[in-house]
Amino acid sequence: MTDNAQQVAGLLLAAGGGRRLGGRPKALLEYRGRPLVEYAVGVLRAAGCTRVHVVLGAGAAAVRERAELGDCVLVENPDWADGMGSSLRAGLDSLAGTGVEAALVSLVDQPGIGAEAAGRVLAAHTSQQSLVSAAYDGVRGHPVLFGAAHWAGIAKTATGDRGARAYLKAHEEAITLVECGDVAQPYDIDTAADLKHLE
Questions:
Q1: Which residues of 92-110 are buried (b: 16+ CB within 10 A; e: fewer)?
Q2: pLDDT tens digits, one per residue of 72-88
Q3: CB 48 within 8 A of CB 122
Q4: For the whole prediction, is pTM greater than 0.90?
């Protein structure tokens, strides 16, 4: 257990309604016999996060009922339909006052990104000023790690489906890129065609 594991919380964004999947909440898509949200929490735990916050939205009651999320902190985002930005804000808000130095943020619909990639990003955390992103052949992707010093700025600019994109663009020179293309695949489960990745 590294110091980083104590100082960095996992933040899983799992509120999406799966609009292009016929309105099936992404958290409940089945992967390896269990809801996708369980797998994604397991990745953050295996990467070393002892505290994990999960932002729920679409089908939140069903997710609570069907997924075994153990001692995760479940955060309900009533505004989930406004896009990922609102979930990121709700998640960062839930971490305020917990004493953690950073949040390792991952998305529920990227099962091709496992504990090895998440662990690499976590290991690059140094302080509350840290801004770290996984990269795939040099292109920024998830997971991302936001030091607490950046949370307020990210929350201000996280709107619609953009999440932290605008903030990261404005602070590009401060981002540590960690190449993960050799151990992970950054595809999203967005459409029916993408469901093949869950088989």
A1: bebbeeeebbbbbbbbbbb
A2: 999 999 999 999 999 99
A3: yes
A4: yes
